[in-house]
Amino acid sequence: DYDNLLFTNQVFVQRAKGVGVLSQQDALELGVTGPNMRACGLAYDVRKDDPYLIYDQLEFDIPTQKHGDAWSRILVRRDELFQSIRILRQIIERLPSIKGKIRTPIPNPLSWNVPAGEAYARVESSKGELAYFVVSDGGDKPYRVHVRGPSSMHAVQTLEFLAKGARLEDVAQIMFSLDACPPEVDR
Question: Which residues sit opposite 146 in a β-bridge?
């Protein structure tokens, strides 16, 4: 039982509580999203605030904490696991009974033209808001693509901000609590 292993382990709790505190204002100024933002008490989630697909038809809560520290970030992620299970159960109930194999042909992504213009889309990923800005000149390849993943803000700007003045032994705890994805940061 992971709850007993982690959340009742006093050493783990003491190493995370009060470490790497991020205020609501700092989170907004740094562009923090997702669980790291919600750990500061800001209940923002793209799936609720700007729903896409069927999220407006599903019931789920946005877990938040109020202290903005590493412990709060861990608790939000734990609570989000339960909300994800809640979402999945609702989706499974909606699935029609399917007999036989399902096969959907995959279109060739190299053989299509997109009208000239631009588009912006965002989704709530497990680590925060993931956004794409795409510009097309009408050809078969995008003219410009910009991806803004949550780790680019969390791993660089936010870690740097929280590490200033932190004890050296707390930096790893802060870094892990931000849950950044290193390959996403490598640009």
Answer: 133
